[in-house]
Amino acid sequence: MSGWIVFWLTNIFIIGLILVSIVHPKYKTSIPYDVSSMILAVLLLICIVIIQVVVGLSIKKLHKNVYWSVVLFAIGIISNWLYLIPAIWGMIINKQKADET
User: Fold this and answer.
1) Angle at the Cα of 84 (from 44 to 64), degrees rounded to 5?
2) Which residues of 5-18 are buried (b: 16+ CB within 10 A; e: fewer)?
3) Domain limits of the chain?
4) Stated pTM of the model
5) Cβ atoms of residues 63 and 94 within 8 Å
6) Any residues with CB less than 8 A from the CB of 101 and at least 6 apart, and which?
7) Closest CA to 53 of 32, 28, 79
8) pLDDT tens for residues 32-75?
9) Measured in Å, how far apart are the chain's first and last C-alpha atoms?
């Protein structure tokens, strides 16, 4: 549950940033003003979308096996520290399941 909360808060934050950039175009730092900045912004946005898709899959399959917990843990270290909470929780639950069987 905590993983989904962090996931949706992160997505709302990303969408909010995009909307602020569109609504306030007078700030040079919010909207890319040349071709190289635009390319960099698009590549960064694509990377963020890919990371969020992987995070969504990881959270959905968190209790299936340890692999998804490790993926979420790595993403938590790299991008959003709040993903460490569900990742560690998933590792604990998967370890308990492995011990029971």
Assistant:
1) 100
2) ebbeebeeeeeeee
3) 1-100
4) 0.70
5) yes
6) none
7) 79
8) 566 776 777 778 878 888 888 888 888 888 878 788 888 889 98
9) 25
